[in-house]
Each structure stands twice: as structure tokens, then as C-alpha cells.
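# step 3/5: fold
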Amino acid sequence: MAHVLDSDQLRTFVAIVDAGSFTKAADVVHKTQSAVSMQIKRLEERIGRPLFERDGRNARLTEDGERVLVRLGVPDDYADRYLPEILARFARSNPQAEVTVVCEPTPNLMERMAAGDLDLAIITHVDRHGSAEIVRVEQLLWVTSARHQVHEEAVVPLALGRPTCAWRLSATEALERSGRAYRVLYASWNSTAVGAAVMAGLAVSVLPESAVRTGMRILGQSDGFPPLTTCRIGLVRALGDPSPLIDALADHIVQSLDNLATLRPAMAAE
């Protein structure tokens, strides 16, 4: 169940962050300074932590106050597909909360989590990344352009992530086991660049089911491509006691990914 914070209190909180003082924020939200102070006191009581430190006339966020501005990490492979639903759900229940989204590969996000730079991260989970809450499991699929025949080449050209990418390792290991010749023609952390190579008919790639796009064709054993492993999508939370706002975003992530419809056409639409 999502924890909902008072939107008027959050609006005042954001005004103080932007203005740098309770006095200036009072003008922005059209309240008295004492009313602003009372709202922040109630918000602090709800969260259970102090949010601001007074420095003369200025107000500075505490470490816990900074966490009210939620920091979410997600690989760009998932951003286009998952974020619209997640952020729309979260914004409806917490309209004044600010979410900072960092799009980086899973290894980078895990480093940021360890350094305390993120509150939550959606990752591609493999055992070497440590523990995570698995929130979705999808089948990895071979994909090519629906308009080209590049998958029929004797040495299959591939567009994949960098060498440490779990999807890349799954693809190359499967081809090596089956004895299918291949070469990695394009390598990038950026899913848009990989997808562009596929759509242009330059290479074959691998994607989870929900990421298959119109204009892509799914390849199977009849095309000479062996089965792939599943993709485990995990949610990692920062160490320590999270705020209700972070809990709320985590709940929306779990609900959104659980309800996400999967597009798995035998042949992608033209």
C-alpha cells in the first residue's frame, strides 16, 4: 500500500527548497511564516525525521530532507517502457514530490547505490550484483528487423551492450553452445543506439519481451537461434530506514511492473 503525504505540505517543502528560507517560501505559497513552520513540523512528524537546519535566515536541507526529493536510477533499456506508468502513478498520489531520474547501466547504478547517491534503482539482476527484490521476470528474445534478412547471414552480426552486460553474455554464450558463428558489430550501453542498428537491418540483438518494438521480428529455433535465459528485473533500495515517500515510489514501481502488459508478436507489425 502506498504511503501518501499531504500535497500541501509537500508544496510548502518544495517552496522552501527553491527559495532557501521559510520567509521567502511563505510569500510563494501565500501563507504566514508561522503556518509554513507548522506545515513543515507536521511533515517532519509524518516522516519521523528533521528536514531542515536553520542557518541564520536561511534554511538548509538535512540529509533526510534531501531524501524527500526522491532519487531513482534506471537503465535506459527500461526507462522508455517502464517510467511513464511508474511516474504517472506516483505523481497522482504525490503531486508535489520531485523525482530525480538517473539513467545509467546497472553496474553504474549499483555503484551509485553503494555510495548513497540513489534511493531506489531498477536493475537487471544477476547474482554478482548482490541482493534485490525481484519484481518482474521476462524471457529474453532474439530480435531483428521485420524488413530485412540480416539474421540469415553465415556470421550473424550482433548489436549488444558492453562486455559486462548480462543480456550480451546470455546471447554470446547461447550462440557458442549452438555452434552458430557471430560477430559483435555494434556495442553500446545506450538502448536507443542498439535498437537503431536492429531497425536499420544491420544487426540482430536480444531484448526482454516487453521491450520488443513494432517493426521488429522475433527469431526462434526455426531461424537457427537457440533459446535464451530469462531476464530478472530487480528493485534495490538504499540501506537504512526509507521515508514514506520512498516507500510510496517503491510500491508504485512494484505495482506498475506487475501490471505491465507484455507485447510478444510472432512477427512484429509493419
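# step 4/5: annotate
Residues 157 and 203 are 5 Å apart (CA to CA).
# step 5/5: archive (pending)
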